[in-house]
Amino acid sequence: MTIQKSIHYFKVSLEGMQLSPHTLKAYMQDLNQWQECIEAVNLEEINFEMIQDYLIELQSQDLKPASLKRKRVVLHRFLKFCYEKRLCDERLYEYIDPIKMRKTKAPKEILTTEEIEELIDYIDGQIGENEVLLGSSNHFDYLYYCWIRNRLLIGILLYTGCRATEAVSIKKQDINIQTNSILLLAKGFKYNNIPIHPQLLEFLGVYQMQLKKLENKEILSNLEASPYMFPSRQDSNKHLASRSLHDLMLKLSTVLGRHIHAHIFRHTFASYCIAAKMDITTLSSLISHSNPSITLSIYTHEIEASQKQNEIKKLNFDRR
């Protein structure tokens, strides 16, 4: 059996398990990298030496521990799939020793209230600059739209704690003002109904007001034709690519003078909820974790820090 065909069968199997597109893409990238590194066409040609040489090569690439572990796990899973499905006769996966990583309780990186204000102020400034130029060209019209869209995206990330893919794929029908909720398609193709925070409701209102100032028929037509809240510019039947959100984060990183990513808003949401003494079961449900124990394991440091702050206040040396 050829390696290429085996990878195809493995991909089909993963798709049947309904893995997220992001996870599936990462798996295929890891396997394609492995295939390019080994000098073999068929599974029968693979031996212990080939696999070890590849693992040694990974070690030399100065990868993050999590990335290194993932690549080994993906290869192990693929080779085990090949053996169990009789695509090869040898237990090649046994040549890959598991990596034991020490679990840390380091705090998650979050945004301060000052940084949040700084980002919103910057975006508002960009909106103001391009609003003055509305109608002068398609370029400035589109820049204006991008920044009012970006403002709402930041609001959604900040006040729902959703993932980047969940934010960009929101459909118009998913935002229900009457029931005060947003329906998110979460990880694992599960739907999660999130209450609209009063501040997020304000973000939505500002977006609608700012959108009324836009008279560019091409942009408005694309928005009207799309089922998505944030449609792709090239195809109204598709939503905004996560890459566009990534590019926005790069711009905002220069504003704060440090690297940020879309997931930092999720950590910020969760950490502030913990600081506000939100029930862990409720928080777990809000951020689409399948089990509260997952939330506890990820935010152990934040929970402990909040508890320490509350408990230390009980200390009193005054005998009076």
TrEMBL record:
Ranges of residues in domain Tyr recombinase: 106-314
Function comment: Site-specific tyrosine recombinase, which acts by catalyzing the cutting and rejoining of the recombining DNA molecules.
Residue spans crossing the bilayer: none
Name of the featured protein: Tyrosine-type recombinase/integrase
Organism field: Holtiella tumoricola
Matches recorded under PROSITE patterns: CB, TYR_RECOMBINASE
Domain Core-binding (CB): 1-83
Keywords: DNA integration, DNA recombination, DNA-binding
